[in-house]
Amino acid sequence: MKRGSLEILSRFFSFGFGLNEERGTAGSSLMALLNEGITAFNISARNVVDPRGLLSLLDFVRERSNLLPFIMSDEEGGPVKRLVPGFTRGISHMGLASTGDLSLVGEMARCMAGEAKEVGVNVFFSPVLDCNIDTANPIIGIRSFSADPYEVIRFGAEFCIGIHSAGVLTTGKHFPGHGATREDSHLCLPIVDISERIFREVHLRPFGNLIEEGHLDFLMTAHIVYPSIDEKPATLSEKILTSIAREELGFNGVIITDCLEMDSMNRVYGIERATVEAFKAGADMILISHTPELQRRAYIALKGAVEDGTIPLQRVKESLFRVEQAREKLPHPEERVHSPSVLSKPDVLLQKKLAEKSLTIRRNNGAIPIEKHSAIVVVELTPTVTGLNEVEISNSETRKIFSTFFNVERFYTLGYSTSAEEILAPEKQSNSNIPIVVLTASRGSEQMKPLRKILEKLAHKGRKSILISGRDPYDADNMEFFGATLATFGLLPESIRAACMAICGEFG
C-alpha cells in the first residue's frame, strides 16, 4: 500500500490525550496526535477546566487539523459525563425514565448537546441502549433507561432527537447490549450465556429500532462474549459487527469500539491484536482513551496489517467512506449559537427539576415525613471505584446538605469493603430512638448483601428508619425492613437535596 494511503489510517482512531499532564492544556500528547494526523479526539474530564478553557483548547485542535475533527465525549448525564465543571450535568438514563416525561428527556439532551456544541464537542457517546435485565450488573445499572426494550426504545429515541436538535451526532452503546452481565468489562471479559432468542428479542431490539428510525450516527461496541452468537467478543466479532449490524440491521454509520485499554481487550488480547481483529471484524474506528504508548502501538499494528494484506484494501475503503460520510454531518464552528464571549452557563433550574421529578418514594410505612431540623443519624455508604471514572458527590458535601435540613447527631461513612459491623457497633448498642437514614451507592443488587444483617438490626431498633438508594434503585426494593425507601438514581447534590425534601414532606 502506498505511503499516502497509509496516512489515511490515522482517520480510523479516536484518541484521548492529556494523561499525566496539566489539566486542560495542549500538552505534548496532543501535539503528537496532531502531528500523526489523528482527526478524532476523545475528551475526558482531565481536559476540562471550564467551558471557556475547553473552547480555547478545541479551537486549537481544529486550527491544527487538516480535516474538521471529531470531538467526542461520554455524555450520558448524571455520573457519566466528562464535560465538567461549568456544564449542565443532567441525570442518569434510569433517572430520566423514572420521570415518565419524554419532553424532559428531550430537554435535557438538547441542553447538554447545545452546551457541548458551543465549545466544539460534536459527537456524544450516548444514548446507552442496554437493557439492564440483571439487577446485579455492576457497570450499567442507572446508565440504562430500563430492563424493558420498548422503554429503552421510547426514551432512547427521544434522547437522540434532543441531541440531534442541537446539531451533535449520536452513538448507540454498547452494541449489541451490555445489560445482562454480572461483570465489569473494564476489569475482565464478561461471558453472557443467554439464548439467541433473548439476545434478539431483548438486547438487540433497541439498536435495531433506532437504526431503522435513523437516530444513530455511531455504534459503540461491547467487550462481551455471547456464546450463543459467537465465541469472540462483540468488539472482535465479524458476525456481530458485519453480519448483524451491517447486513441484518442495515446500519451504515460508523462503528467505533469501546476503549481498547479496558482489561477485557488489552489484558486478554493485547492492544495490537485487539486493534487488528476489531477492524477486520467491521469496526471503522478504534477508541483508545488514555495511554500514548498503547495508542502508538495500535496505530503501528493497523498499518502493519494493511501493508501485509491481513486487512484488505477494500475494508479500508469501506471504513474510510463511512468515516468521511459522518464527518460531513459535523456542525461547523460558525454554527455556534453564541459568540465565544457569551457562553451558556449550567441550567440550574433544569438540574433542580430533573432531580426532583426523578426521585421516587418506593415505600413508606409511616417513617416519613420527619419534621425539619429533627435530630437524625446518617450512615453513608461511599461509591465504589470503577473504570468509568464516575463523578459523584463528596462525603463532606453530603453531610452539609443533610445538615441544612436536619440536626445530624452522628454521621458514619463506610466503604463496602469496610467492617460495617464493627464501625456501627456503638449505634447498634445505643438506646437512642433517633431516626436513622442510610444512603447507599450500590452498583448492582449483590453489593449490599454483606451489610444486610447489620442494617436490618439498625432498622429494627424501634425507631424510624429510611433508606435512600442513591445509585441503582435495587437497594430500595430489596431492603424491605426499612420504614421508608427512596430512590434518587444518582448521587448528585441536587438529588440528595431532593431526597431530604421528600423526607421532610416538602414534596411528593
Shape: globular
Q: Level of helix content?
A: 25-40%
The biggest beta sheet is recorded as: 6 strands, mixed
Mean pLDDT: 92
User: In what range is the share of β-strand residues?
Assistant: 5-15%
Poorly predicted regions are none
* CATH C-level of the largest domain: Alpha Beta
Q: Within the CATH hierarchy, at the fold level, what is the topology of the largest domain?
A: TIM Barrel
Q: How many individual helices?
A: 19
Biggest sheet: strands side by side, in what order? Answer: 11-16-15-14-12-13
CATH-scheme architecture of the largest domain:
Alpha-Beta Barrel
User: Considering the protein shown, what is the CATH homologous superfamily of the largest domain?
Assistant: Glycoside hydrolase, family 3, N-terminal domain
Would you tell me the structural class of the helices and strands? alpha/beta
Q: Give Rg in angstroms.
A: 23 Å
List keywords for this structure.
alpha/beta; TIM Barrel; Rossmann fold; 508 residues; globular; single chain
Structure description:
- The structure is a single chain.
- With 508 residues, the protein is α/β, with parallel strands linked by helices.
- It folds into 2 domains: 90-329, TIM Barrel, CATH 3.20.20; 359-504, Glycoside hydrolase family 3 C-terminal domain (Rossmann fold, 3-Layer(aba) Sandwich), CATH 3.40.50.
- Helices cover 39% and strands 13% of the residues.
- It has 19 helices and 16 strands.
- The strands form 4 sheets. A 6-stranded mixed sheet has the order 11-16-15-14-12-13, sandwiched between helices.
- Strand 14 (436-440), helix 17 and strand 15 (465-469) form a beta-alpha-beta unit.
- Helix 4 (93-99) packs across helix 13 (348-358) and helix 10 (271-281) packs across helix 11 (292-307).
- The protein is globular and about 75 Å long.
- The model has no long low-confidence stretch (mean pLDDT 92).
